[in-house]
Amino acid sequence: MPIVVQKFGGTSVADSEKILAAARRAIRVKMEGNQVVVVVSAMGKNTDLLIELARQITEEPPAREMDMLLATGEQVSVALMAMAIHSLGHQAISMTGAQMGIRTDSTHTQARIQSISAGRLRQALDEGNIVIAAGFQGIDESQNITTLGRGGSDTTAVALAAALGAELCEIYTDVDGVYTTDPRVVPEARRMQRISYDEMLELSSLGAGVMHNRSIEFAKKFGVPVHVRSSFSDNPGTMIGPEPESPEQPVCGAALVKDEARVSVLGVPDRPGAAMTLFSKIAARNVAMDMIVQNVGEHGEADISFTVFRNDLPATLKAVEEAVAELGAKGYDYDDQVSKVSVVGLGMATQAGVAERMFRSLAEEGINILMISTSQIKISVLVARQHGTEALRTVHRAFALHEEPAPVVRPAASAAVEQSPEMVARLQSMEQMMIESVALDQSQALVTLAGVPDTPGLAAQVFDEIAEAGVVVDMIVQSVGRGGRANLSFTVPRNDLGKTLSVAKLLTEGFGAPPPAHTEAVAKLAVSGIGMRSHTALAIRLFQSLADAGINVELISTSEMLLNVIVDNRLGEKALSTLRAAFGDVLV
Ligand code: ADP
Ligand code: ASP
Ligand code: MG
Fold first, then answer.
1. Phi/psi of residue 498, nearest 5 degrees
2. What is the per-residue pLDDT across 362-391, written as a single tens digit (0 to 9) for each?
3. Could you say which of 62, 70, 297, 349 is the most buried, measured as most Cβ atoms within 10 Å of its Cβ?
4. Separation of 205 CA from ligand 2 center, angstroms?
């Protein structure tokens, strides 16, 4: 019998009536001839209330006890949901994470799923029950209760769907699908009919709170079709699957992280392994970094800047202080009043001028860009927090995301990725990282404009004029401005270096900045896979292996799908084999 997993979020089980309504949905699907697993979150704002209670007792509650507390929220809702189904005349049994055998690692409050023993679940289903599963929780090797991170019930749902080989995972929530951006922030946002795993993975890790990003890692890895829809209506919702909605569109959605922080470590000795020392200390605290920018200074010293969620700032600064002392760096500074605005789309990989369009739209609103980091399918900019929402609206408008994309003629729907039991077995650890490829590109040149004015419109002007010259820019990285001046680095095809430099020379003269610096040939290494940014251990492995091989990293960009580094061209082959060896065990 086909299995369907349905997940109901907090607002969808906020009171008894909503619980009964959700119960009816589950019964309906059961009556249609399916086995049904219902995953539930804590009721309404219960998790927030529990966190608040803990804070009233202590500012730093032990993480283990925090998990013990938070897991109670879901335990309340599973029991009530099972009672609701009974009261409607059907059979149901509720289970906690431990009872379902959801085994996780021991990273309390951010645990990752290692395995699920589906036996007990299957037995309960075969006995004719609707199984009501507690979302967000698991148990570690020593029987401690763990939780998967805020929003983690989505991950429970998709993981159960993968482990049971379910036909479909339905996510019932308080919006009727995935929108081009958060409809509460930008009312003109449009519901998408479908979105690809890759795009959803980037969007959710860049701030689209509708899905827990790790749930999309599972969905992609195991080919689970996910249907996001409203628990309050029968609207069609959004399908998350292998295909994008419209491959022609350069951008499918935009996202905002309102509370971000930028940290810069200053005067780091520019030698292999220095960045690595810093990153590993941060990763050890389970903090994911984004927008990593490294500027090589004049005296063999570099400044390294990056962003983290503002909530992670205290832990990050502790790590930074240790690293500064150990490396003998000059010091550090930070800005905790910044927001990150990103656009995502598979189509941008093959279309020119996308970044420039984003920069131009912000310039026209007078919004200054503090940092830039681009990857194959996303562009992120950092802006002052007070401009965050306005910047999101602006880029949403610039890409006309409110408009329905042109209809696409689609070949007959391709079957979902076949999920073989061997595959599940091979990933001894379900949330283990998985690398798809390590590639070397030696066709690019690197250009750096140092000391350009840190004013609105600067990036727009530079990339406008370069695009005018017919040059397609690949990686773009802009560092934090200091003393009113910023550095802008980007890669272009080697053949276009001459053209690019003549444009760049005129630009820098106009700015009263030093002439552009360039490296005629650089090697770009691209490591692609799933969950590249949030698996902090992965970045560490990358930097550690390059450092051990004595290879200095000149430019970095990170995203959930891709980690790019630029190194000296002569070291390209060596870097490639180093990385292949470093990731050999997780390369699929
Ligand atoms: P649940 O409790 O059901 O898990 P969440 O609050 O976690 O619900 O997620 C739903 C919310 O996500 C919506 O109310 C919406 O404000 C927000 N959201 C953010 N980005 C998006 C987006 N791109 N599309 C739809 N909703 C979004
Ligand atoms: N109840 C948890 C939270 O609020 C998990 C979830 O709702 O997904 O974060
Ligand atoms: Mg949620």
1. -55, -55
2. 999 999 999 999 988 999 999 999 999 999
3. 70
4. 16
Angle of helix 197-205 relative to helix 213-222, nearest 10 degrees? 160
CATH of 255-398+434-582, one of 3.20.20.370, 3.30.2130.10, 3.40.50.790, 3.60.9.10: 3.30.2130.10
* Rg over CA atoms, the chain: 24
Mutate to test the pocket of ligand 2, among 7, 150, 160 (most ligand atoms within 8 A of CB): 150
pLDDT band at 426 (very low <50, low <70, confident <90, very high): very low
Which residues are registered as beta bridge partners of 239?
194, 227
Other CB atoms within 10 A of residue 80 CB? 19
- The finding on whether 215 has its CB within 6 A of some atom of ligand 1 is no
pLDDT in the model for residue 272: 74
Class in CATH terms, 3-174: alpha beta
Is 179 a residue whose pLDDT tops 90? yes
Q: How far apart are CA 46 and CA 9, in angstroms?
A: 11
Region of poorest pLDDT, from 12-26, 137-151, 296-310, 388-402: 296-310
- DSSP structure string for 141-165: TTS-EEE--TTTHHHHHHHHHHHHT
Q: What is the pTM of this model?
A: 0.93
Nearest ligand, measured from the Cα of 199 = 1
Per residue, what are the HEC states of 78-127? HHHHHHHHHHCCCCEEEECCCCCCEEECCCCCCCCEEEECCHHHHHHHHC
What average pLDDT does range 2-8 have in this prediction? 97
Q: Which of 62-76, 365-379, 406-420, 516-530 has the highest mean pLDDT?
A: 62-76
173 three-state secondary structure: strand
Please provide residue 519's backbone torsions phi and psi, each rounded to the nearest 5 degrees. Answer: -125, 120
Sheet containing 145-147: give its strands across. Answer: 113-116, 102-104, 137-139, 145-147
